[in-house]
Write a structure and sequence with these properties.
Elements lengths: L4 E4 L1 H8 L12 E4 L1 H8 L6 H12 L2 E2 L4 H13 L4 H13 L3 E3 L12 E3 L3
Parallel strand pairs: 1-2, 1-4, 2-3, 4-5
């Protein structure tokens, strides 16, 4: 570990599973994730047993951020102030409440002023 901590968005994990080169310098960092990311990754229709094992293996070396009432409250505020889908609001709120940067490839998070964003390029 290099001391860096991030909350990784679902798409970041998808690119990590595909071995995207932009993530290489961040592999020594501590990665957190929201329960939403776990649901999105493992709830994919038609996911194979092999894919499930691969995702579970990846998540096992990361930290699942606890879901709290503060996250709910922040997600509600984000939904009120920005046009966001519920999963994105929860993920952004989790990063805010955990006080860690949000690691993502999703440019839609750039509109959320409250989040410390690390926006990766494809």
């Amino acid at each position: 570990m290099n001391g860096n901590r991030f909350l990784a968005d679902t798409n970041t994990f998808i690119y990590l599973l595909d071995k995207h080169s932009a993530l290489q310098p961040l592999l020594e960092s501590e990665w957190l994730y929201s329960f939403i990311t776990e649901i999105e990754l493992l709830g994919k229709p038609g996911i194979s047993t092999k894919e499930i094992e691969k995702v579970q293996g990846l998540l096992s070396v990361c930290i699942k951020a606890p879901h709290t009432e503060a996250i709910n409250s922040t997600a509600i505020n984000l939904k009120q102030n920005y046009k966001m889908k519920v999963p994105d609001a929860i993920i952004a709120a989790t990063a805010i409440e955990q006080k860690v940067p949000l690691l993502t490839f999703d440019k839609d998070f750039a509109k959320v002023r409250e989040v410390d964003l690390v926006l990766l390029e494809y």
